[in-house]
Structure formats: C-alpha cells, structure tokens
Amino acid sequence: MVEAWIALGSNLGNRRSHLRGALREVLRLGRLRAVSPLYETEPVGLRGQPEFLNAVARLDTALGARPLLDALLDIEIRHGRVRGARYGPRTLDLDLLFYGEAVIREPGLEVPHPRLHERRFVLEPLAAAAPELRHPLLGRTVRELLENLTGCEAVRLAEGPEWAADLVNP
After folding, report:
1. Chunked mean pLDDT (size 10), the chain, 170 residues
2. What span, in angstroms and rounded, lies between the C-alpha atoms of 170 and 162?
3. Backbone phi and psi for residue 23, each to the nearest 5 degrees, phi listed first
C-alpha cells in the first residue's frame, strides 16, 4: 500500500456535497485514512468567480500512480467537471499531491504536484492533516513550506475535520 495525498476543491454548485461525493468514490480506491478540515479560499489565477472549498485527504492505496490519477479524473467527470479556462470555475478538482515518496515526471502526471508548495489553499489543509509530511524534492515539511509562503490568496477555516469524519477509516 502506498500513502497518497489528494487535494480536493470545488467552487460551483453545492461545493460541500461535491467534495463529500468525491470522497465516497475515493473509498473504492483504497483506505481513506485522514481528511483535513474544510477551507474557504479565494480563487487563484482567475478572479470574478465563486470562492472554493478546499481540503486534502490521505488514501492508502494499492493502485499505481497513473491508475490512481486516471480514477481521480473519472471521479471529476462524474461530478460534472468540464475543462475550460485554466484556473476557471469547476464543480470538482482532484489533484494527486504526493504518492508516497515517489518523484514522477511523465506527460500528464507530475508527483509531487509541481505547484503545491506555492499554494496556500493546498498547504493550509495539508498542514492541518500532516504537518510533518516531508516534500521529497524540497526536503522541507509541509509546516515549513506553509510558514515560508508569502503573498498568497486568502484562506479561511470553514469547518473542522468532522465534515467527513464518517468516511475516514484510520
């Protein structure tokens, strides 16, 4: 089993319902071990759209990185994700942040996620769930990456980890 970390985001429709629905489907891919609190965040890259709800989840899985990513993309589609403008609004966004300590650079698959260390909306929930998780390329913990982040989007705690506690099997 590999410990994978997945970022979840939504800014269209019933955002919380999209995130919980995605987690229910993620349960088919392995054992959901942890889910962060929910954070409300302002959009990055394209203003004038609704705010996002963001969280992260830890999944222990026997799937390889590519099959896991493909399964996540399928979940996005089932939740109405339509790929349009980069950084545009979306019903559901699932990103594979870490896949164990693997470093993978293939067309369409980059792990660790190449911009996670620049994004407060990823680091805040990840630090809440796993502050000592170490980035395999940068050599810093998630807590250290968050402490050194400057000039980024607003991120506010929206709900504690109980929003999805019934789905977690620690």
Report:
1. 97 95 97 97 82 97 98 94 74 96 96 94 96 97 95 88 93
2. 13
3. -65, -40
Name the residue type at position 57: A
Q: How many helices (H) and strands (E) does the chain have?
A: 4, 8
Burial of 63 (0-12, 13-18, 19+ CB in 10 A): middle
Encoded tokens for 33: 């071990």
In a 3-state reduction of DSSP, which class is residue 42?
Answer: coil
Q: Specify the DSSP element, H or E, that contains 19.
A: helix 15-26
CA 34 from chain center: how many Å?
Answer: 12
d(CA 65, CA 117): 20
Question: Residue 80 has what pLDDT?
Answer: 81
CA distance 132 to 33: 16
* Peptide linkage before 131 cis (omega within 30 of 0): no
Active-site residue list: 81, 90, 93, 95
The closest of 125, 58, 129 to 98, measured between CA atoms, is 58
